[in-house]
């Protein structure tokens, strides 16, 4: 069965973006970029592949990407309707109209039912790209959590997971520290 992998950058205090959705305070440091382009090349937007020397299409475990409206909007504002054209893209949103881009589908239905259906289909793993509200709705479906933990505290913003109190346990399976202070942490969900 396919896995849902929440792969995201975070601050030490658990925020993935500023209150306005910006994330420029989480820079991609050169030592981390080298690791990510080698190990997670599919997580870079398609238009950045040449800049980072990523093969097209990049090899990897994902063939599908999920994101919320807030995660998708910066691309739309830049005129990019298909930011990850190398993957099948779904934007889960009740407020966006259907996409005119055939490489991206807007899904207005129940995110949990949608993910369960995706997991039952053949294919590669599914990348949950963001944001915090969508992650909160899908936390019970997350099989793996990969956090690029940045050495910064911001105090407020968009949380890693936005939901009511409901503990979900994960087991640390890998921790990769970098000289710049970033640590890439990989966890698997404890059996439910």
UniProtKB/TrEMBL annotation:
Write the protein's name.
Dihydrofolate reductase
**Matches recorded under Pfam families:** RibD_C
Q: Which residues form the Bacterial bifunctional deaminase-reductase C-terminal domain?
A: 4-184
């Amino acid at each position: 069965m396919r896995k849902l992998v929440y792969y995201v950058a975070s601050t030490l205090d658990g925020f993935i973006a500023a209150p306005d959705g910006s994330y420029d305070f989480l820079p991609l440091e050169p030592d981390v970029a080298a690791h990510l382009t080698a190990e997670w090349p599919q997580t870079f937007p398609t238009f950045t592949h040449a800049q980072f020397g990523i093969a097209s299409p990049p090899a990897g475990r994902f063939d599908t990407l999920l994101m919320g409206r807030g995660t998708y909007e910066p691309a739309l504002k830049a005129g990019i309707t298909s930011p990850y054209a190398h993957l099948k893209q779904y934007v889960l949103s009740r407020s966006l109209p259907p996409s005119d881009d055939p490489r991206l589908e807007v899904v207005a239905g129940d995110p949990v039912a949608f993910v369960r259906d995706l997991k039952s289909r053949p294919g590669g793993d599914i990348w949950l790209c963001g944001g915090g509200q969508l992650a909160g709705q899908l936390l019970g479906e997350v099989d793996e959590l990969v956090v690029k933990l940045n050495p910064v505290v911001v105090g407020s913003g968009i949380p890693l997971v936005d939901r009511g109190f409901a503990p979900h346990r994960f087991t640390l399976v890998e921790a990769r520290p970098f000289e710049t202070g970033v640590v890439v942490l990989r966890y698997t969900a404890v059996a439910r």
